[in-house]
Every structure is written in C-alpha cells, then in structure tokens.
Automatic annotation (TrEMBL):
Residues 1-187 form the A to I editase domain. GO terms for molecular function: metal ion binding; RNA binding; tRNA-specific adenosine-37 deaminase activity. Its EC number is 3.5.4.34. InterPro entries: A_deamin (IPR002466). Keywords: Hydrolase, Metal-binding, tRNA processing, Zinc. Specifically deaminates adenosine-37 to inosine in tRNA-Ala. This is tRNA-specific adenosine deaminase 1.
Length: 192
C-alpha cells in the first residue's frame, strides 16, 4: 500500500492510458483492532518526504466483523485455506475460485493451458491489454505505445516510462523492498 501511495494502484500497463496515477484517497478497516497511528505510519509516514503523497489517505473504521475473523473464531482451530474467491464483474461468469493460483477443478493435464488461468493473472491481464491496444487506431494510442515494437510483457511494462521512473525512484529510496523475478515477466503474446 505504501508503494501504491507513490506510484498509484494502476500498475505499469494501465499507466500507458492514464495521465495521472490512481492513488488511494481512503482506506476502510473493518471489524478488527488496529492502531490508526501505526496504519498511517505503514502506508504514508514511513516513506521519505519525496515519495509521500501530499496528504495521507483518510482512514475509516467499520464495526462490521468478518464471520471468520480471529475475534469470531477464537477458541476454535483456524485452518488456512489454499483457495480464494476472485470476482470479476464484467465477465459472464464473474465469480472464480482459485486454488494455488489456478482455477479450481482444473486437471493436472490442463494446468499449463489457458483454461487453468484466473482472469487476474498477469498473462490474462496482458491479453486484455493487448486486445485494447489492437482495438485502437495508431492515432488513438498513447504516445508511449505509438510506433513502438514492443513484444513481451516486460517490454510493455518498461515502456511505461513515467510509471517506471516513479517505481525506480521508490525502490531506490526503499532499498529493502522486494521485487519480482524478471523471468516471470519475459513472456510474449504468442506464448500466452
């Protein structure tokens, strides 16, 4: 969340199409104990002044308690779950259950095929980005994409110069921040 406060939540690909980053204006914490000061320190004040947004996001608290939160399950053994629910509002089948990063129910035989991918994985998001790019004429494309011979996911991300400049500045000043392996981003649309 601290990096989102500086670079925005949109990521490199979407930043090609935006004039300004999308920053959080508020954060809602629900049904659990928290320290307002500690949360603000974590997402805003710990950043060096040059990385900090002019104002921290507004913090809101909801008294609604998640049924399976620590408070509600105290005294009962809590068992972690490898699955997650992914809701994508614009799809016909907008609700997906993911297990260990793949759609639930996918057989081992299909694990490396597109049918196994969740719609929020980087390959599927790259496909959507590429489809959007194909729908636009050259004069409708953002300047960062016009006349470029970008092929791989990594090249398109690196082509978002303003975003990359912000990201590099962030990582330079927050040197302990983890980064993803470049190998995970070196695929092209033909391989998708």
């Amino acid at each position: 969340m601290a990096r989102w406060g500086f670079c925005g939540i949109q990521g490199a690909l979407l930043s090609h199409f935006l004039r300004n980053p999308i920053c959080l204006s508020s954060v809602v914490v629900a049904g659990c104990p928290y320290s307002k000061e500690a949360l603000l320190r974590a997402i805003h004040w710990r950043l060096p002044a040059v990385l900090r947004a002019p104002e921290p996001p507004e913090l809101h608290y909801s008294s609604l308690v998640f049924t399976h939160s620590k408070q509600m399950t105290s005294g009962h053994p809590v068992i972690p779950c490898a699955s997650s629910i992914v809701s994508v509002g614009r799809r016909k089948n907008g609700l997906y259950i993911g297990v260990n990063g793949y759609k639930q129910g996918v057989t081992r035989k299909n694990i490396e095929r597109p049918v196994a991918r969740l719609p929020v994985c980087r390959r599927e998001l790259f496909l959507q980005f590429h489809e959007l790019k194909q729908q636009l004429s050259d004069d409708q494309l953002p300047a960062s994409l016009r006349g470029q011979d970008l092929q791989s996911y990594a090249e398109f991300k690196l082509g978002a110069h303003d975003y990359q400049k912000s990201r590099l500045e962030f990582h330079k000043l927050m040197s302990g921040w983890t980064t993803k392996s470049p190998d995970l981003q070196s695929f092209a649309i033909q391989e998708v």
